[in-house]
Amino acid sequence: MMLITAIVVPSRVRTVRRALGLFGVQGLTQTRIFLELGPRIRVEVYRGAREVISRSPRVRLEVLSTNADTPDLVRVISRAVTGSDFQLWVVRVDHLVRIRTGEVGLDAL
After folding, report:
1. How far is CA 4 from CA 12, 20, 34, 64, 70, in A?
2. What pLDDT digit, counting tens, does each position of 33-85 carry?
């Protein structure tokens, strides 16, 4: 099993979720996060006052998949966020347990 994590801009979340739904993904984890901009601080005007922005809002999406579906899911996510700033990585999951039911491995997926 693999864990696919994608960090996307908030405006692309609906597109990614729709594409994953069409692929057949039944569940995913969505978390609102903020990325530190580091030395790339920008100044914006909010209600007439200048604000220094050092963090940028993003959404972190996590999907568990089988080894066979992983390349296709990566392709689906990449196509859904084309032209947008995003990060994507895949991590191997060696052991998965659903705590509520005690299911292990693919049964817990």
Report:
1. 17, 12, 19, 6, 8
2. 988 877 667 787 878 888 777 788 899 999 999 899 999 999 999 999 987 77
Structure tokens at 13: 């979340």
- Domain boundaries, position 74: 2-108
3-state class (DSSP) for residue 108: helix
Whether the CB-CB separation of 62 and 89 falls below 8 Å is answered with: no
Structure tokens at 95: 């052991």
Residue 109: CA atoms inside 13 Å, Cβ hemisphere, count? Answer: 15
Query: For residues 17 and 25, is the Cβ–Cβ distance under 8 A?
Result: no
Bridge pairing between strands 87-92 and 42-46: unpaired
For residue 57, the SS3 value is: strand
Cβ partners under 8 Å of residue 27, min gap 6: none
Give the count of domains, the chain. Answer: 1
Whether the per-residue pLDDT at 26 is higher than 70: the answer is yes
User: At 10, which CATH number?
Assistant: 3.30.70.120
pLDDT (mean) for 8-34:
93
